[in-house]
Amino acid sequence: MPDDLRYSNDHEWVRVLDDGCWRVGITDYAQDSLGDVVFVEPPAQGSAVNAGDPCGEIESTKSVSEVYTPVAGTVTAVNSALQQDPALLNSDPYGEGWIYEMQPDAAASLESLLTADAYRALIGE
Q1: Is domain 6-108 given the CATH code 3.30.420.40 in the classification?
Q2: What percent of the chain shows pLDDT beyond 70?
Q3: Do residues 34 and 63 lie in contact, with contact meaning Cβ atoms separated by under 8 Å?
Q4: CA nearest neighbour of 50 among 26, 27, 74, 67
Q5: Whether this model's pTM surpasses 0.70
């Protein structure tokens, strides 16, 4: 679990990019709980998202789970590679398996998210 990311209680991670956008994905813990991912429905590019709201879905061999937005903002990009290979969420959840990028609202703060140590405590590691 990368220490340079921030995490939500809903098992999403956030990476701040050089252009000020935030990249969002699910944690290794989440993908492991889901099992083999077979389909990913990301949020629509250009859509406004609100903190804590569902914005997409992940279908696995075990269940269908929602993806939640860690902070409010606007979706600026989606990972089209997941349409061809949804298993990237399983094989590389912190790298090529990212789900979407967003421009956070001005009021959004990384401080509202968990540090890696706090997330480890949440999941009992």
Answers
A1: no
A2: 100
A3: yes
A4: 74
A5: yes
